[in-house]
Amino acid sequence: IAENEDPGLVMNYYRDSALRLKISSKNKFSFFTSATRTLPFLGSETSSMTASLKEGNGQELWMRNFRYIETIKEALERECPGVVSCSDILVLSARDGIVALGGPYIPLKTGRRDGRKSRADILEQHLPDHNESMSVVLERFANIGINTPGVVALLGSHSVGRTHCVKLVHRLYPEVDPALNPAHVEHMLYKCPDAIPDPKAVQYVRNDRGTPMKLDNNYYRNILDNKGLLIVDHQLATDKRTKPFVKKMAKNQDYFFKEFARAITILSENNPLTGTKGEIRKQCNLANKLH
Ligand code: HEM
Ligand SMILES: [Ca+2]
User: 2 C-alpha to center of ligand 1: Å?
Assistant: First the structure.
């Protein structure tokens, strides 16, 4: 590649076998949740945000186990310093995490660079809130080229992981949301017994009680059964624009995987920093100038 020429995102820009760290079965779950949940942050504006939010102090709600990204980064810096960006580590981690949880193998490009500064302050403008209307959710994703079946497929990630009580008590107290399946309400009340959860206690409900460790299409069956934890999950199953795709994905896992792969690919290529833009961070939670 000639100097000053921006190679953009390329397939196998460098060999990624160095990333194949041994992942224990206990850790593969956290690995997926931290990596995949951070994927939506990967635009040029946002890639740096991801890496500037630190774990702990309430950040548990954002990126659980972000520390695995740092572990991978440390291993890579030992082998080939200054080559692999934190953004690429996130993407390839998501790819391998998806496979580790029984999802499809999605070949994803590399060649991203990291932001030179944190843009954590504008994060909220880019991400839909979990109580948002379906129109806003669809619009936010449409802005980055993801269509309705793509959105439905991405939300299928809620087939694994957890939701902390702080995010769902408003559906239980002071009154139980009548849209919820009563059998599920019982479980939710058991897991989240306080209207105002103790911020220090890590109280949560599993997103998918049936197959919590498998990225499968069980999420769609749950939400059709009114067992969606978040407003956004419930709406996905009821909104007339999304419901047909929910039903199709509930019946057909191959279709879910196909749409999921397509949408994850678009997400992973959203507005990246490439070529000479940005930098290769030395440490993923800090821009280099802050060292
Ligand atoms: C409308 C879009 C979305 C909204 C509003 C949303 C909202 C949320 C919320 C509120 C939680 C619970 C967080 C907590 O209590 O710790 C959660 C968990 C999760 N979300 Fe989403 N999400 C969205 C889209 C996505 C996408 C696109 C992905 C991945 C491709 C994803 C993957 C996950 C995963 C894996 C978890 C479990 C995290 C864990 O166990 O720590 N979500 N989501
Ligand atoms: Ca599942």
Answer: 40
What is the ipTM, given to two decimal places? Answer: 0.96
CATH class of the domain at 17-127+267-290: mainly alpha
Identify the pLDDT of residue 69.
Answer: 86
Domain 134-265 has CATH 1.10.420.10: yes
Listed by start position, the domains of the chain span 17-127+267-290, 134-265
| Separation of alpha carbons 24 and 89, rounded Å | 18
**Site residues for ligand 1, CB cut-off 6 Å:** 33, 36-37, 39-40, 61, 64, 128, 130, 137, 154-155, 157-158, 160-164, 167, 230, 232
Ligand 1: which atom is nearest the Cα of residue 61? 16
Per-residue pLDDT, 186: 97
Q: Whose CA is nearest to atom 16 of ligand 1?
A: 61
The Å distance, Cα 250 to ligand 2 centre, comes to: 12
Pocket test for ligand 1, best of 155, 192, 204, 266 (most atoms within 8 A of CB): 155
pLDDT in tens, 113-122: 999 987 777 7
Q: Which regions of the chain does DSSP assign to beta strands (E)? A: 162-164, 204-206
Q: Rounded to the nearest whole angstrom, what is the distance from the C-alpha of residue 37 to the centroid of ligand 1? A: 6
Q: How far apart are the first and last CA of the chain?
A: 30
The DSSP annotation for 37-89 comes to HHGGG-STTTHHHHHHPPSSTTGGGT-TTTHHHHHHHHHHHHHSTTTS-HHHH
State pLDDT tens for residues 83-105: 999 999 989 988 988 998 999 99
pTM of whole model > 0.95?
A: no
